[in-house]
Design goal:
Blueprint: E1 2-8, H1 13-16, E2 21-30, E3 35-38, E4 43-56, E5 62-66, E6 69-73, E7 79-83, E8 89-97, H2 100-106, E9 116-118, H3 123-135, H4 143-161, H5 171-179, H6 186-192, H7 197-208, H8 212-230, H9 235-241, H10 247-258, H11 262-269
Antiparallel strand pairs: 1-2, 2-8, 3-7, 4-5, 4-6, 4-7, 4-8, 6-9
Helix pairs in contact: 3-4, 8-11, 9-10
């Protein structure tokens, strides 16, 4: 005996241009039938909340699946899996496609080489799958947009739920973020953590999906934008505060990455107000009293 609910969607060509679209969503539990062997043309994320089962790789090796776990079903790669026939399992699945899948794969959010991923907790991903299921009602005028947006959210939730990674990054990433605006090279950061540059590169790529240089640069430029928008500091002072002793180099780098010069960014985004600004993230549920 098993229980299944599923819905399949057919987004229009214009919706595909959003980058990600949802092709289907389902919730199943119990002694479900064996899936495959089969090969799909799109991605499917299968989240196992409770129970055990197996997954067989294309070379015939069978792996045990123990909840909470994620199964990545990747286009063009044969797969074959099933829950334990005696106990079954509880699963939610979402099928999706779009050009953004290539970028999510590059960033490490989708892992074709790891079809079975242990999760620390399936609560977050299952909550997103539940929202997709509720949005997938046929009379929803925002059906394709709402479900497509939720696929982005699901990929973030799955990344946070991976058992081998801390939800908000490991201590190395936190330390890099804290020290990003100091005038230090990538080699300096690596040495501070007792790592080689190659080891630091591997750690940052695994945790943040990019190189240490890009990770540090993103934080520096974000901070520079805040200073340009919320203060009247000269550009040279902003450059020094985010780790660049050469203001001309900073301006060239800012212009290349942001698409406009620091002075133009300030002219467009200036938010300087009497009383200064805070670096503390505000609580939207507790706005200040005027």
């Amino acid at each position: 005996m098993y229980h299944t609910w599923m819905r399949f969607l057919t987004p229009s060509p214009v919706h595909h241009r959003l980058g990600l679209v949802c092709l289907g969503v389902g919730l199943q539990y119990g002694a479900l039938p064996t899936v495959g062997p089969r090969t799909l043309d799109s991605h499917v994320a299968v989240v196992i909340s409770t129970g055990t089962g197996w997954y067989e790789t294309p070379d015939g090796r069978r792996r045990t699946v123990t909840a909470p776990a994620l199964l990545w079903l990747t286009p063009g790669i044969p797969h074959h899996y099933a829950p334990d026939p005696d106990t079954g399992w509880d699963e939610g699945f979402v099928g999706f496609t779009g050009p953004a899948t290539a970028t999510y794969t590059e960033l490490g959010h989708i892992e074709p080489d790891r079809p079975v991923v242990a999760l620390s907790d399936a609560t977050g991903p299952r909550a997103v799958i539940g929202r997709i299921a509720r949005a997938a009602r046929r009379d929803n005028p925002l059906l394709e947009v709402e479900t497509g947006a939720a696929v982005h959210e699901l990929l973030v939730a799955l990344r946070r739920a991976r058992a081998d990674l801390a939800p908000d990054g490991d201590p190395v990433l936190k330390a890099l973020a804290r020290d990003a605006c100091k005038p230090m090279s990538v080699a300096d950061h690596a040495a501070r953590h007792g790592m080689t540059t190659a080891e630091l590169r591997t750690a940052v790529r695994r945790g943040a999906g990019c190189s240490p240089k890009d990770y540090l640069l993103g934080i520096r430029l974000g901070r520079a934008k805040e200073l340009l928008a919320a203060t009247e500091l000269p550009v040279a002072s902003v450059a020094r505060r985010v780790g660049y002793d050469d203001p001309a180099y900073f301006s060239r780098l800012f212009t290349r990455r942001v698409g406009m010069a620091p002075i133009r960014f300030r002219a467009q985004e200036s938010r300087a107000v009497p009383g200064g600004w805070s670096n503390q993230v505000p609580d939207p549920d507790d706005p200040p009293r005027i």
